[in-house]
Amino acid sequence: MASNLAIIDTSIFIDYLRSGLHQELISSLSYVVRNSAVVLAELGCGAKTRAERHFLEQLAANYPIWVPTRNHWLESGLIINRIRQAHGFEAPKLRDMHFDVLIALTARSYGARVLTSNRTDFETIACYLKFELEVCSSF
Predict the structure, then answer these.
(1) Does CATH number 3.40.190.290 belong to domain 5-135?
(2) What strand order describes the sheet that includes 5-8?
């Protein structure tokens, strides 16, 4: 039985904030949304305007926040190492993917799906980690 829980990835929120993409998706979600602490941190790092910082504050205030566990951190390093060996990605790419692996591990531990527009990275991760993934088009 599929869960109705979901974590919305940073890519969806960035698309929404910067270009208005995914507005319909966000306003009509049939999922119970939970925040990933990783997504909130990524949004905080990239917040350029007062409106973006306010959006982040509202997300944090209105939706429960799930935090990666000790085991998620340990497992994520092993997964990233396997991805590095298989694909030869350099450190900057691996750092970005590491956050995505943490999001996926956290979602999986709650039986939630990850909603993202970052098809390439999350589909690569899905080759090394079983989790529910829904890719939302950026176009």
Answers:
(1) no
(2) 65-66, 32-36, 5-8, 113-116, 132-135
Structural domain boundaries of the chain? 5-135
Helices 37-46 and 50-62 meet at what angle, rounded to 10? 170
**Token code pair at residue 46:** 């990239």
* CA–CA dist 109, 72 (Å, integer): 9
Q: Give the global pTM.
A: 0.94
User: What percent of the residues of the chain are helix, what percent strand, and what percent coil, each to the nearest 5?
Assistant: 60, 15, 25
Amino acid at 60: A
Number of Cβ atoms within 10 Å of the Cβ of 131 = 19
Distance CA 28, CA 43 (A): 22
pLDDT digit string, tens, across residues 24-41:
888 888 899 999 999 999
